[in-house]
Amino acid sequence: MSGAGAHRAAARRAVDLDELAERLKSRAPRAVGRAISVLEAGGERQAELVRRVYGATGRARLIGVTGPPGAGKSTLVDRLAGAIRKRGQTVGILCVDPTSPFSGGALLGDRIRMQSLATDPGVFIRSMATRGAMGGLARATRDAADLLDAAGFDWVLVETVGVGQDEVDVVASVDTVLVVAVPGMGDDIQAIKAGIMEIADVFVLNKADRDGADRTYRDLALVLSLAEEMTEATWLPPIVKTVAARSEGIEELLDAIAKHHAWLSEGDRLAARRRSQLGLRVETILKERVLAAARAEAGFEREVARGFAAHEDPYRLAEELFEGVVRAEAARTEA
Amino acid sequence: MSGAGAHRAAARRAVDLDELAERLKSRAPRAVGRAISVLEAGGERQAELVRRVYGATGRARLIGVTGPPGAGKSTLVDRLAGAIRKRGQTVGILCVDPTSPFSGGALLGDRIRMQSLATDPGVFIRSMATRGAMGGLARATRDAADLLDAAGFDWVLVETVGVGQDEVDVVASVDTVLVVAVPGMGDDIQAIKAGIMEIADVFVLNKADRDGADRTYRDLALVLSLAEEMTEATWLPPIVKTVAARSEGIEELLDAIAKHHAWLSEGDRLAARRRSQLGLRVETILKERVLAAARAEAGFEREVARGFAAHEDPYRLAEELFEGVVRAEAARTEA
Questions:
Q1: Which stretches of chain A are DSSP H helices?
Q2: B231 and B295: one domain?
Q3: Interface test with A, best of B95, B283, B297, B302 (most A CBs within 10 A)
Q4: Structural domain of residue A87, as residue ranges?
């Protein structure tokens, strides 16, 4: 493409994004879906779109839902959304499966979402998928939450599968994190204890009508009491029993979320949390920025191939690439 | 500390690292343990130490072992190590728990390692822990494998808990990845299918004497056959049945590992794999390099606080920080 052609194409894309951002903020049908697709495709347009809508963000309540496979998270999210709708508020749902870049589209397909939600314009449901790395998925999901926020949704529910670090990353950027457990998890309680305890704001013991619910409740309470000593947390995550499939405990769960929000809203807590989350987002973007520069301006692939052939150590290679990026970017700024 | 004092301290640390690297390469007792502690502490010294020993790496066989909690991975690793020792070869074992920054030290403590291994100088066992982030743990573990390699260990076994992306990152840098399953995993087969399938070189069906072993074997074989179509892999991961607690199937597993190594050694495969792994290591180091520069030279925390107060979007903040890093680094290079 010629310089002028590239310039025109860039201008056209910029106009498209301006228009899309305006349609999103004015809550036009299908604007959110199109906008999220822009995020998923990544690249410059992802950044440009977020920058255009960011001024309209900060109003929605962001809730993360995580827990092991089979805990009934999607049913729980459906019922939460239903209860939120009954209160006359709107809700966006983002479903994230960081363990598989392939299943993004399938996550919705293999579950039965509430029929009433699927046809309700006050509800937006989307499975997140990206072509890039895991980090890209967490970032795109957080950006998508911003889009829903800017589009005026009162609540954004982010649902993940599993309880690994990716899920932690995905839900780390919300106001309230729900960790869903089920009776008879056995060893999985250990997994929750190890990885998720630190980020849980509310525990949900779902399928609480099953055998072993009392024991799992006691296990959770024990783990929580230990965690409390360890971290000196001032917020002790409550444990809420639910039977999502029968819509039991959903109002109690919303109450617990409201209590957490009230606690967060005291003093500087919510601001401090969101400031720290902004820092993590900036970290992620900065890291991907240097990598993109290393590829585009410092011959990343070529240098790795050369370094490999020469048995050069990875730290030396990284430093050389970093210096190459600095030289190229400094020259570009001067030009 | 004065400039001269800092200079002397830096020189002394450099001498320490020179000495440590030499002692490591000459296989002095306790050198490996001390060297890994240097890695875990992170910072400049981690890079400096790896750079000093890297020339002596590339000879060891690197094996990763991952799978869900309760699959019997540590017993399996112990028996593998025992079988390797019977062949007169040496083995280093690194145990990694990415789900908890706290449990690094506890991982060994709550398991009973084979007494014979613990007192055998041909075996080195270490739980990995870092003070930093998850990415830091994967990086320190890969660096520790280099140290063991440079110290002349014939094999390095990297054992993780869980099957999340962190585990994938931790074991992604080995020659052969073993994924351990157990009968009756139920939904967990799905988890394996989603996240781990792509990186498994050998499947181990451990506790294969239990009820449901045949069904889990069939499930795994089915998943494998689907994956084969999907990825057009030329290496079809075999499924090896073991009962690690009774040392059954261990020789067959070593045979499967040897077959995979023979396959890798054909043509450019092993080189291509290690080159790609080097690229991933360089990526990680480069990302952490820019973040360190943003903190040290571009006022990361201050800028995030300012940007948060001004409701600046994270992409703009990241770009400003990146430009700040480039300016500072370019000025430093010129000076």
A1: 3-25, 31-41, 44-53, 73-86, 106-109, 115-118, 134-150, 165-171, 187-195, 213-231, 250-265, 269-297, 300-309, 314-334
A2: no
A3: B283
A4: 58-266
Q: Which two tokens stand for residue A162?
A: 């599993």
Q: DSSP readout, B233-246?
A: -SS---EEE-BGGG
Q: Among B234, B266, B298, where does a domain finish?
A: B266
Same domain, B177 and B287: no
Q: How far apart are CA A321 and CA B283, in angstroms?
A: 10
Q: Is residue A50 part of a domain?
A: no
Query: A289 and A148: one domain?
Result: no
What are the mean pLDDT values of chain A's consecutive 10-residue runs (335 residues total)? 61 80 92 92 91 96 88 92 96 78 40 67 85 69 96 95 67 89 68 64 94 88 70 77 96 97 92 93 94 96 97 97 96 82
Determine the residue among A66, A273, A283 to mutate to test chain B binding: the one whose Cβ has the most chain B Cβ atoms within 10 Å: A283
Q: Please check whether residues A98 and A211 belong to one and the same domain.
A: yes
Please name the residue of chain B whose CA is at the shortest distance from the CA of residue A192.
B99
Provide the shortest C-alpha distance from residue A116 to chain B (in Å): 28
Same domain membership, residue A63 and residue A189: yes
- pTM, 2 dp: 0.83
The tens digit of pLDDT for each residue in B18-50 reads 999 999 999 888 999 999 999 988 888 999 999
Across the interface, which of A55, A195, A286 has its CB nearest the CB of B99? A195
Size of interface A-B (CB pairs under 8 A): 187
Q: How many residues does chain A have?
A: 335
Q: What is the pLDDT of residues B65-83, one digit of tens each?
A: 988 777 889 899 999 999 9
How close, in Å, is residue A99 to chain B by CA atoms? 5
Q: Are residues A179 and A311 in the same domain?
A: no
- Tell me how far apart the alpha carbons of residues A223 and A200 are, in angstroms, rounded to a whole number: 12
